[in-house]
Structures are given as structure tokens and as C-alpha cells.
Design a protein that fits this description.
The complex is a heterodimer. By secondary structure, chain A is α/β, with parallel strands linked by helices. Chain A is 38% helix and 26% strand. Chain A has two domains: 1-81 and 161-242, P-loop containing nucleotide triphosphate hydrolases (Rossmann fold, 3-Layer(aba) Sandwich); 89-158, no CATH class. Chain A contains nine helices and ten strands. In chain A, the strands form two sheets. A six-stranded mixed sheet of chain A has the order 6-7-8-3-9-10, with helices on both faces. In chain A, strands 2-1-4-5 form a four-stranded antiparallel sheet, with helices on one face. In chain A, a hairpin with a 2-residue loop joins strand 9 (209-214) and strand 10. The longest helix of chain A is centred in the last third of the chain and has 16 residues, at 173-188. The N and C termini of chain A lie far apart (44 Å). The relative contact order of chain A is 0.18. Chain B is mostly helical. Chain B contains eleven helices and two strands; from the N terminus they run ααααββααααααα. Chain B has a two-stranded antiparallel sheet. In chain B, a hairpin with a 2-residue loop joins strand 1 (134-137) and strand 2. The longest helix of chain B has 32 residues, at 3-34. The chains are: A alpha/beta, B mainly alpha. The A-B interface holds A 51, 53-54, 73-75, 78-79, 83-84, 86, 90-95, 99-100, 102-104, 106-109, 113, 116, 139, 153-154, 157 and B 168, 171-172, 174-175, 178-179, 181-191, 241, 294-295.
């Protein structure tokens, strides 16, 4: 199946630190590619250089539907269909929940105000955000609902691929379960997803494939059950047995 | 103090307040959106006045007061966007952007002021007012031009508030001000929005210049004092909301009017700056501000 998003030889360093080193991957239409790795392994940096927010890769190629996008500016990459959420709940705090999502719908440039508003409401509904809180300033919402606003904003872009960066961090087990159900609902709707997650049961439950990074390099990739049993992965997480 | 004197002071404070609100708007929106202080803001005010004089006055193009004002405001929008492009954008991602743009906007102010001097000369000029004469309501005696100014500024401030709160572009400007990275991920062209914000700030500064130029005499350095007053207003009000600096502008206008009556014109700037320092110590987020800046 043709890849929706493909990376070839992606690298990024900060001075002497190689944050991402020569990473290749491809994610097919409707596939969920899970990304795991210890803290500082380069997972979020990978998302940063894919979206060019806040910085671009030093080297490598990113293809969206076969076309290179690394020459595009960050907002153009978003409009082309690469949507991303942050690990912390990154919203526009003084804007209402609906205005947050409306911005993304307007940013995607698909139709007039009425169409954008409808798209924003639909995205919030899809994310499971309570309709009664649409007009609440996003900064006053609890963490879980801010995460939903962030995910709904990404969905309102009507993306080709959705990059979720630790959607379950700082959440209760019940909220993690709702995030799991939401991801599965998106998968059911045919969404292509790249998912970074430390909560391994969630990651393995929703991912078709898993890739593990350590010190910026790809150390394992394949079916989730095989990857988490890989000795190199166990060593990266737990250290070498003496 | 008798009633006519009190009314006269309040009226003077109101007229100053509307002018200060216009002056401070641009400074505040550039600070909240781009995170920099624009020292060329005073020069924008002066340039707006001279352009309106050039377009409108009988001694120049003679298009009339309103056409002159509209053309000056439109030209200032373009000039503001160009100044952002030349003096601010090159340092956009630099870690010392605040310091660097203090220097570049100060340089911009000097260049604009000298250009005004070269083009129009140092001799005092005045824009012919839209209306002559005086309006009388009971105890209130007001110059017609002042009444025009208050009405136009009130409409302008409401329009700006509506624009920022209700339109997609205004929403985008507020979003960029709160979270640049998230805005980029929402497909917003941050560079374009920065240029538009600077243009809007310059256009509103230009409108303030038109009014100042029609009630006082114009000189190339006429923006220096308004820049200081706008700084006092922005610091007193804080920048949490669009309305913060508007409230502060009226507060400063009224305080200045009373201070001029009681302690004189000479000491009034000292009173205002003393008040500004006091606010910086006691409530650094501003009288109408919130302690935490948005993330």
C-alpha cells in the first residue's frame, strides 16, 4: 500500500548532540505507527522536524503522498495535511474551546465561516468534547478537556496524517481509556496516525506497527508484540543485565 | 473647585484619553503579538500626521480632511508592514530579539523622523480641522474638532474590538499572540500575521497622528511625547486584554488633566512617570492585567 507519510534519512543535531540520526520510516493509509523510546530518545524531535515546528531537520526527505514537503513552511505543511498535537496541552488559553478548533478549520481554508464552524463542532463532537463547554475559555478547562481541544483542533485540519505526542500523559486511567477509545474510533474512520506514547499498554493496543528510538537512532521496528520482546528494546528501557 | 472647572478638566481628560487609547493600541498589540517594543511608534504617529497633511491640505494635494485621513491611515498600514519586514523579521527567531529590535526600531524612528524633516521641513504645520467652531451642551463647551475626534476614536475602538474578537483574522492575531507554535500547526501564516499586526498598529498610530496634527502644531518630532504617554498607558494598563490599555488610557488622560490643573503642566509628566514606577513595583502586570502571561 502507498505510504501517506514517508521519511528518508531524517537527521537533527544540536551542537554535539545527535537528537535524530538517519531515521527512515513509512506509514500507510489507515495505519497506526506507534513510536516508543526512553526519555530523550528523539521521539518529539522527530515530530518537530516532520512539522518544522519549531525547527526543521538538518538532513533528510519527508514525503506526503509521495511529494516532498520539507521545502514548505510550517503552516503550509499543516494545511497540506500533517496535523500534530503536543505532549503538554498546547491551546490558546483566552480563546473559547470552539474558537480554538475554529482557527484550525479556518487555517485549513476549506469553505466559509458556516462551513468552518460546522467542521469545528464536528471535530469537537468526534473528540468527545462536551457540547455544553464549547464557549468556555480553553485555559480554564481541566487537563483532559484541553487535550481533547488540542486533538479536535488537529482533526479540524482534516489531516492526511495525525501525529499524536503522548496524548495519555498526565491523565487518570479512566481518561487514558477514553483516549484509547478515541484513537480506535479514528482508526475505524480510516485515519493514519503516528503515536508517541509512554503508556505501553495503550501503545501496543492501538498500534499496527511499533518503532523504538534510543539516542536518536531506530533500534527496533515491527509488530508490537515482537518489538517489546526485543532484547535491544528491553536494554534501552531497563539497562543491561550484569 | 467650581463645577464648570471640574467639567472642563474631565472634558480635557476625556479628549486626552481617546488620543492615548489610539496611541497605546498599536504599542500594546505589537508587544502582545510579536513580543517586542516598537520605538518607531512615535515616528508612525508623526508620519501619519504629515501624510494626512500632504493628502488633505489645500496647500498640498487638497483632497480634504477625511480623504487625507483615510489615505494616510492606509499608507501607514503599508509602511508599518514594510518596517516590520525590514527591521523586525530578520531577527524573528533570534534569542536576543527584544534587545535587537529596541535598537532597530530606534534606528527606524530616527530614519522616519529625518525623512519627515527632509521632505516637509522643520517648520510647524497644522492639518485644517474637519469642523471649525464650538459645540455647547449646558456647561460643556467643546471644540467641534475635539468632538469629531472623540466620536471617530470611539467608533474606531469598537471596530478594533469587534475585529479582534469576531473576525477570523482578528482571532488568528490573538492566537498567534498566545501560542506561536500551536498557531503554525493550525495552518496560520505567522509571518504574514506579524506583518499585518505591525501594519494595523502603524495605521492606528497614523490616525492618532491625524487628530494630533489637527488640534496641535505638527513637527517631525511630534511623536516623541505621544510615545512616552503610550508607554505609560501600556505599563499602567497591562496587556492582558485589548480593553486593558483603553481603560488605562482614559485613567491617564483624567489624571493628566487633574495634575495639569493642580500641579501644572511642567510637573505632570513627572506625576505620570512616578505613577508608572509605582505600578511597576506594586502590580507589574498592570492595573487591569493578569499576573500570568498566556502560554
Amino acid at each position: 500500500m502507498a505510504a501517506v507519510l514517508e521519511a528518508r534519512g531524517l537527521s537533527k543535531s544540536f551542537g554535539g548532540l545527535q537528537a535524530v540520526a538517519d531515521i527512515d520510516f513509512a506509514v500507510a493509509e489507515g495505519e497506526v505507527l506507534g513510536i516508543a523510546g526512553p526519555n530523550g530518545s528523539g521521539k518529539s524531535t522527530l515530530f518537530n522536524i516532520l512539522t518544522k515546528v519549531p525547527f526543521a531537520a538538518d538532513r533528510g526527505t519527508v514525503l506526503l503522498d509521495g511529494r516532498p514537503i520539507q521545502g514548505r513552511r510550517p503552516h503550509e505543511i499543516a494545511r497540506l495535511g500533517v496535523a500534530r498535537t503536543f505532549q503538554r496541552e498546547s491551546v490558546f488559553p483566552s480563546l473559547s474551546a470552539i474558537d480554538n478548533v475554529l482557527l484550525a478549520a479556518e487555517g485549513a481554508r476549506r469553505g466559509g465561516f458556516a462551513a468552518c464552524l460546522a467542521a469545528a463542532e464536528q471535530a469537537l463532537d468526534l473528540a468527545g468534547f462536551p457540547a455544553t463547554l464549547h464557549n468556555m475559555p480553553a485555559g480554564q478547562l481541566p487537563v483532559f478537556l484541553r487535550k481533547l481541544v488540542m486533538i479536535a483542533s488537529a482533526l479540524a485540519l482534516q489531516p492526511r496524517v495525525l501525529l499524536l505526542d503522548e496524548p495519555a500523559s498526565s491523565l487518570t486511567p479512566q481518561e487514558i481509556e477514553r483516549i484509547r477509545a478515541l484513537i480506535l474510533k479514528l482508526v475505524g474512520a480510516g485515519m493514519t496516525i503516528l503515536l508517541i506514547e509512554h503508556v505501553l499498554p495503550l501503545l501496543t493496543a492501538v498500534s499496527d506497527r511499533l518503532m523504538v528510538l534510543d539516542h536518536g537512532t531506530l533500534i527496533a521496528s515491527g509488530r508490537p508484540a515482537e518489538v517489546i520482546a526485543d532484547p535491544a528494546v528491553i536494554e534501552a528501557y531497563l539497562g543491561r543485565e550484569r | 473647585m467650581d463645577l464648570p472647572t471640574l467639567i472642563s478638566i474631565l472634558q480635557s481628560g476625556l479628549a486626552l484619553g481617546v488620543l492615548y487609547a489610539l496611541m497605546a493600541f498599536g504599542l500594546a498589540i505589537v508587544w502582545t503579538t510579536l513580543g517586542i517594543f516598537n520605538f518607531a511608534h512615535g515616528a508612525f504617529i508623526a508620519a501619519g500626521a504629515y501624510l494626512a497633511w500632504q493628502f488633505g491640505n489645500a496647500a498640498a494635494f487638497g483632497l480634504g480632511y477625511w480623504a487625507g485621513a483615510v489615505l494616510a491611515v492606509a499608507a501607514m498600514f503599508v509602511i508599518g508592514a514594510v518596517v516590520q519586514l525590514l527591521l523586525v523579521r530578520p531577527f524573528e527567531r533570534h534569542r536576543d530579539i527584544v534587545l535587537l529590535t529596541v535598537i532597530t526600531t530606534l534606528a527606524g524612528a530616527t530614519i522616519i523622523t529625518n525623512l519627515l524633516n527632509v521632505i516637509w521641513g522643520p517648520r510647524m504645520k497644522q492639518i485644517e480641522p474637519a469642523l471649525d467652531g464650538e459645540i455647547v451642551f449646558g456647561l460643556v463647551h467643546m471644540r467641534s474638532q475635539e468632538a469629531v475626534m472623540i466620536a471617530v476614536v470611539a467608533v474606531t475602538l469598537f471596530a478594533l474590538g469587534w475585529f479582534l474578537l469576531r473576525t477570523p483574522l482578528g482571532r488568528s492575531m490573538r492566537a498567534v499572540a498566545q501560542n506561536r507554535e500551536a498557531a503554525q500547526l493550525m495552518g496560520l501564516d505567522v509571518r504574514l500575521l506579524y506583518a499585518l499586526t505591525f501594519g494595523l498598529a502603524a495605521a492606528v498610530a497614523g490616525l492618532a497622528g491625524v487628530f494630533i496634527g489637527s488640534i496641535r502644531f505638527m513637527s517631525p518630532t511630534m511623536g516623541d511625547d505621544p510615545l512616552q504617554k503610550a508607554l505609560v498607558v501600556v505599563i499602567l494598563g497591562g496587556v492582558a486584554r485589548f480593553t486593558s490599555s483603553v481603560y488605562a488610557a482614559f485613567a491617564v488622560g483624567i489624571i493628566e488633566a487633574f495634575s495639569t490643573y493642580f500641579v501644572g503642566l511642567y510637573w505632570t509628566p513627572a506625576v505620570l512617570f512616578g505613577l508608572m514606577i509605582l505600578v511597576l513595583i506594586v502590580k507589574p502586570e498592570g492595573l487591569f492585567g493578569r499576573r500570568q502571561r498566556s502560554v
